[in-house]
Amino acid sequence: MAMRTCNISARSVFLFNILTVLVLVTYLVDLEKKIANAKASSQHNSDLLNTQVNGALLPSIVPSQKPTLFYNRVPKTGSTSFVGLAYDLCSRNKFKVLHVNVSKNAHTMSLSDQLRFARNLSNWDLKQPSFYHGHIAYLDFTKFGSPPPIFINLIRQPLDRMVSYYYFLRYGDDFRPHLIRRKQGNKTSFDDCVKEGQAECDPNNLWLQVPFFCGHHADCWIPGSSWAFEQAKNNLIKNYLLVGVTEQMEEFVAVLEATLPNFFKGALKLIEISFTENKSENPKTKRFKIPPKSETILRFKNSTVWQLENEFYQFAVRQFEYVKSRTLNPDFSGKEQQFFYEKIRPK
To answer: Cα separation of 259 and 275, whole Å?
Structure first.
């Protein structure tokens, strides 16, 4: 009886040892997998974080697996040139580019269309990161219960933008040189248009960049609305990742490449090549663009619309200069800034 008990005890010990070994082996295998995954993730993050632009080591934001960018482009701000970079990079950097074409080239949508668009853009799973662009006023996705995309934009000195658009309607551009524009053949200069008081050159027509950032509220589109001006500034700061200026296109691209390398890796090199080949304003307005005379400029400067549009532009410039300095020159040592957590309670 004692011998049988001893055998049972020995068998139990043996089985226990076998189970212990199996558990230990399983644990070690799982641990090795976690270490391997951690190394791979660390290397991936390191590649993203060690982005260099102009010789500086730059901090980067690592996007989620399927981020969505929305560039609600303002007309005649260099948007075609910038979007061209996205189309050049999309295959290499593995993201989709989609042009949003609204019926009749409208800049705003009805409430029902806003709802459908917000839900469609947020829920359409392309299985790749996506870059949407179109001439659409800012849309508050959260109003419809949809996660917002990452908004970016470019704006331009307001009178320069208006003059560029004026001659664009008459002479087209190099992007689609054979397309007949609706004012083709009209050789009236911008100065003469203003002097004659034609509706096309009314200072109220400057009112575009403010409402584009203000959004779909009725007051956004009232020329000279101080409420729209304040709303546009608020949206620029709170709801846009980055707003650049046409006059600093290269720097705008550099900041985007440093911040969103998954989309814009290699963009700065492409735009530098374009600048070298004298295509910095491609698609530029063809033939000529006559600068407005001083009396024309003075007439615009006396209008409330110009004052608010210009103040909004200067506000955007100051913000971009600040972001650019903090991104392309993180600190005086030229090294990447770090952050860490401390004094964590309870332990």
So the answer is: 22
pLDDT of amino acid 337: 66
- Can you say whether the dihedral through the CA atoms of 47, 52, 57, 62 is positive or negative? negative
Residues whose CB is less than 8 angstroms from the CB of residue 87 and which lie 6 or more positions away in sequence, other chains included: 97
In whole angstroms, what is the distance from residue 164 CA to residue 162 CA?
Answer: 5
Three-state SS at 208: coil
Residues serving a catalytic function are 133, 135
Regions in the chain scoring below 70 on pLDDT: 1-65, 172-185, 275-288, 330-338
Angle formed at CA 70 by CA 68 and CA 73, multiple of 5 degrees: 165
CA distance 307 to 117: 33
Dmax (CA) for the chain in angstroms is: 121
- Return d(Cα 159, Cα 163) in angstroms, integer: 6
For 105, the token pair is 């080239």
pLDDT value of position 340: 77
Place of tokens 């009886």: 1
- Kindly give the interhelix angle for 267-276 and 79-93, rounded to the nearest 10 degrees: 130
User: Architecture of 61-328 per CATH?
Assistant: 3-Layer(aba) Sandwich (3.40)
User: In sequence order, which residues have a C-beta less than 8 Å from that of residue 148 and are 6 or more positions away?
Assistant: 140, 141, 142, 239
Asked if 140 and 215 count as a contact pair (C-beta separation under 8 A), the reply is yes
d(CA 155, CA 243): 7
Contacts of 319 (CB under 8 A, 6+ apart): 236, 237, 243
